[in-house]
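Lab notebook, design round three. We kept the backbone fixed and only want residue identities now. Task for the bench partner: fill in a sequence for the structure below.
Input structure tokens:
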């Protein structure tokens, strides 16, 4: 359901269609190359483990933009009450097929109807970079209200000075989306203005899958 306090991005339908087209390739690349599989990337796994330890038994966790469900399933293995949502129905098809023991639904980050103080944790794991710069703060404000006091938010995004218009991705599939890159200090400031308190930051160099990135964990004051 749509959160009425969040503007609908003008390119939402194009982004959804693009991720539907790449969903099968992306899910296969996670298996064959390790892209997106935190178990093969120690620093990313450490970040998700720290998030899981922080959430503890505070309450359910929602993985927003879960893709094929890899991180959602890992959190469930850690004993958390984790579920995932994604804009792309095809991504959700892959997630449900690969991890039938987890809960997955189709929804955009801009369309969530989250009750105040209802979640122990929220993730935006390299899944918020398609949100326009004026929409991301609105989404983060919804996330902040949805977390219980002391609840944790974990996110990762691409670092850079310019936005990138993508026309192909994940095996040369045609796409139509913009990757909104952030400088780490800018990104942290947006999270703070949403009402969350950053507690850790991890800067990552470029690798064979992506350019430089930043991971931020924050908590709702409580």
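Proposed sequence:
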């Amino acid at each position: 359901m749509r959160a009425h306090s969040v503007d609908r991005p003008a390119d939402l339908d194009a982004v959804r269609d693009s991720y539907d087209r790449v969903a099968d390739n992306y899910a296969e690349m996670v298996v064959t190359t390790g892209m997106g599989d935190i178990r093969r990337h120690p620093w990313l796994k450490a970040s998700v483990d720290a998030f899981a330890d922080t959430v503890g038994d505070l309450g359910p966790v929602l993985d927003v933009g879960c893709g094929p469900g890899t991180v959602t399933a890992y959190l469930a293995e850690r004993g958390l009450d984790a579920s995932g949502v994604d804009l792309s129905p095809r991504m959700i098809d892959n997630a449900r097929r690969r991890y039938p023991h987890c809960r997955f639904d189709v929804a955009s980050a801009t369309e969530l109807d989250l009750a105040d103080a209802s979640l122990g944790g929220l993730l935006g794991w390299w899944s918020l970079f398609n949100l326009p710069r004026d929409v991301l703060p609105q989404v983060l404000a919804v996330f902040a209200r949805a977390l219980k006091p002391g609840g944790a938010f974990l996110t990762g995004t691409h670092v850079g000075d310019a936005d990138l218009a993508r026309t192909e991705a994940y095996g040369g599939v045609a796409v139509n989306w913009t990757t909104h890159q952030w400088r780490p200090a800018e990104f942290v400031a947006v999270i703070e203005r949403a009402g969350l308190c950053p507690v850790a930051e991890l800067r990552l160099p470029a690798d064979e899958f992506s350019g430089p990135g930043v991971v931020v964990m924050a908590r709702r004051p409580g």
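Keep this in mind before ordering anything: The first strand starts at residue 61 and ends at 64.
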